[in-house]
Write a structure and sequence with these properties.
Strand content: 25-35%
Structural class: alpha+beta
Order of helices and strands: EHEHHEEEEHEEEEH
Distance between the termini: 29 Å
Shape: globular
Number of helices: 5
Largest sheet: 7 strands, mixed
Radius of gyration: 17 Å
Length: 205
Amino acid sequence: MKTEIQPQHTNRSAAFEMWISSPMPMVTMTKTMNVTRLVRHGRRHNRSFNMLMCWAIAKAASRLQEFYILPCAGRLFKYDTLAVNTIVQNKAGGINSCDIPFSEDLNCFSSYYAQLTMQAKDKCQSTFLEESMIIGTSAMIQTELDTIVNQYTDKFSNPMVLWGKYRKHWFKTLLPVSFQFHHVQMDGMQAALFLEYLQQEINNL
C-alpha cells in the first residue's frame, strides 16, 4: 500500500527541505561487487544471473527503512512493500518494463520473475506495481562497463541499480555496479550501507 506522509514526522525532514526542490537531486555511487556466488548458484540451479541480482538487490534494500519511502511531485510517500523493475526485450524487438514483487523466498521470487518477464516478452506489455516502492534495474551486458550514470531528472525519483557485463578475474567474478538514489530518500551513509548489504546478500546466497 502507498500512503502520503508528512516529511516533518520522519527522519528525512531536513533532507526533504534541502533537496525536494533541487533540479538535480540524484546521487550516484559505484562499487565493484564480487558476484562469484551468484554465477555459481545460477549455473548449479539453472537460474538467470539477472534474476539473482534483482533478488539480492531487493533483499538488501529490505534491510533499510529508507527504501520504503519515496519523494514524488513535491510530496513524500510511504510503502509497505518493495518490488524490482527489470527491462525485458520483447518478441517484436522492442523493450518493456516489468515490475517484480519482492519475496524473501528465492523460489517464490524466481517464479514471479519467470512468469512476468515471459509475459512481457510474449505480449509486448509492461507490468507496473503502483502500490510498491520500485527499485529500478538495468543490465547492459553487451559490454563491460566501469560505471553508468542515468538521466538526472525530477520526473523519476526511484532508486536505480545498473551494471554491464561481469568480468572474470582469476578465481573471482567481478561486477562494477552503479547505484543512483534521490537525496531526499536517503543520505550517502544509507546508500553505502545498501551496497554493503548487497554484497552480504550475494555472499550468503
